Amino acid sequence: MRLTQLQCMHKVSTPTKTSLIALGVLLGLSGCGENNNATQQDKKTAVTPAMVGDTAAKSSLAIWPDLKPAIAKDDALEAKIDALVAKMTIDQKVAQMIQPEIRDITVEDMRKYGFGSYLNGGGAYPNNDKHATPADWIALAESLYQASVDDSVDGINIPTMWGTDAVHGHNNVIGATLFPHNIGLGAANNPKLIEKIAAITAKEVMVTGIDWVFAPTVAVVRDDRWGRTYEGYSEDPQIVKAYSYAIVEGLQGSVNGDFLSDQHVISTVKHFLGDGGTENGIDQGDNIASEQDLYDIHAQGYVGGLNAGAQSVMASFNSWHGVKNHGNKYLLTDVLKDKLNFDGFVVGDWNGHGQIENCTNESCAQAVNAGLDIFMVPTAAWKPLYENTIAQVNNGEISQARIDDAVKRILRVKFRAGLFDKPSPANRPLSGKTELIGQASHREVARQAVRESLVLLKNNQGLLPLAPNAKVLVAGDAADNIGKQSGGWTITWQGTDNQNSDFPGATSIYAGIDKLVTQAGGTTTLSVAGEFEPQQKPDVAIVVFGEEPYAEGNGDIDNLEYQRGDKRDLALLQKLTAQGIPVVSVFISGRPMWVNAEFNSSDAFVAAWLPGSEGQGVADVLFTQADGKVAHDFVGKLSFSWPATPQQTQINVPLAQYNTKQAQADYQPLIPYGYGLTYQSTASDAVVLDNLSEDNLAATQTLEDLPLFERAVKSPWSMFIANASERQGLTSSVAQNSALTIRTMDRVVQEDARLVSFNGNELGTVGLISNFPRDLRAYSNSDATLSVSINATQALQKPLWLGMACEGDCRKQIDIAKQVNTQLGEWQRLSFSLACFADEPMDFAKIVMPFYLATDAAVEIRFSDVVIQAASAENTIKCN
Asked: What CA–CA distance (Å, rounded) separates 476 from 295?
């Protein structure tokens, strides 16, 4: 689940000048997942059971196991549920299926409508206060709960439940214990530790009155360019399966023990299904795996989680063979509910229903009919969605039986969780016990997890472990930066805009080193730039560096080279090695990356992943005790293969597939899955990481043309129109605003072009946009062009702007009216070098809008075939 830090809005308060692109309007909504233009997404031609009828579907269903329900059917409970449902009105039933966000509802809304649940997205807090106290969280939980059981308005008193993203601890709450992200926990390969982490997370969540956690993520990552790679435990589905069982049991308790007691919360296995296998690692993209691979690779976490009794499953943003999962009845109902015998509820992701073909955020019968039980509907869209869903039941578009099934599933989980019997949130056993938030014993488990997650990749001449009485220089911008070492999903959605002061009780990596070294009689110097006084030359330098925090699609990249085009961390390492100082690199990252040059400039290299709030766990392993004995050895092993080139992006394969000779021949990583040195390792155990090729292979990357709009809009882009104050996604063949009208038209084949009629009253814009920024540096570093076929019927007397835009206040546009006017009434192909758009502050690593046309002239413009071409053509316009 996600939340843009720019809260999704439909209007801006102040219109921009019509002589400029209203960039705040165009980009301010780009992360909201609104109207993702599913009607124009390109569809894969592969046939799936969901598309071809009952016989094929039944045959394919044989791939899926008949799981035995973890919780046996309780006839008495089912009778209680049936009796309650029989008393409910359609309005009350649909309200159980609506999950709004805390910033978009009031206590009175809850009293009136009786929502079945609500959530806080990443970066949402009580009173919109990032530093809200546990008491503030409890107060909000209590007020919304009391409103939900107040039957004076809605006539029924079913308790609501609060869901939150506690994905590496209770990460939205100041002072909570933050554990390593999943990729680090996978390197530890310790399910018992995972269960303990989950149980601690449940306790800290319950202190704040919250009932339900959106975890674990069980994605099995195929392409490390994906911005959510760090949310995957391993490339091996069997580790993911074991971890899913462990974390569900830790969150919920054992089905044969303290299941959903007052020490536990409801868990959610997510995201169903195949989110880790999208083409090119594009977040929310298309997975084209076979159904067998979908089960063997991507579904194993669900086998583990459902066997442990997971009570909810979250649908995924991605598609499978072009069909959005939120609307895929075959996966949600035939597979998950019927074949895997899941009797809990399916919750949507952040307006994911709005991405289904012919749906919007405000209306989507298709999702309910496919098997979605709860709409996650942040923003003000909850109200029209509620009203439209009621209308769709009344007119027969959604059956009464499907609504009753969804509500029974929701109530079943609420009864199992004891929500009808437990005290209100403020009066539960753990509520308000603020001493549990960041408790020392919890932090000690997190510190253990840090130690076990570290993977030693290089240790020349046995540099590690270090003597703690040494003179130590600690450098790098991640050394004393708790936010950076914690990554995304940390207080804010992206994990950005945090200071060390936002982490009371936490320890940076530097602080942990400083404490250990000082106690042993050594000295430390902290210098981000690696500076020191000549007379204080260090015995060793520990350089802590790595990726900046990101979450979801914001982390998507186009190849795995670290700091491409800006090798400032490499320069720091080389500066230190040139002075004869031994260098230990501690690499902070959410994925393996191509760091050959950084390997070559390091005597020792540690993959530390995203360790969370307990940075002293790093020092525990890097140094001996004062007496020279090793207190903690390295135990972490790579749960993801390490790439040999920046383009080796799909190296991840299930462990079971390594057994064939062909697979072994094809598998050529720089460092293999399962690798990790210890202090007992010998030279023969080590992969040779000296004198690796440092060629910037990104510069020679083989590029293919990147279609943006050919016959249809290509994923992950969607088409929009805008005026000076409003942007809207397109969900039909005709749309309009106060500046323009757009409709589909036939140029060569059906609806392969667009006709835009600008009325000249104000600046109008049409373009392509993505929910997340996309990395197009490979194209900007080559001789690529932005190419479009265009046709104007009358001469332009005012500028026609062709532009691109990146995240933030970042755009470049050029006037193409002159070129268009040279061939009126006929189609012409115009190609412009990407260098035309390369001026500051354009950042091709974060493109959200690769193409737009804008004008305030009264003119008709037709366009089609928008492509970023890998090489320039003879007639390419260079914009000199």
From this structure: 43
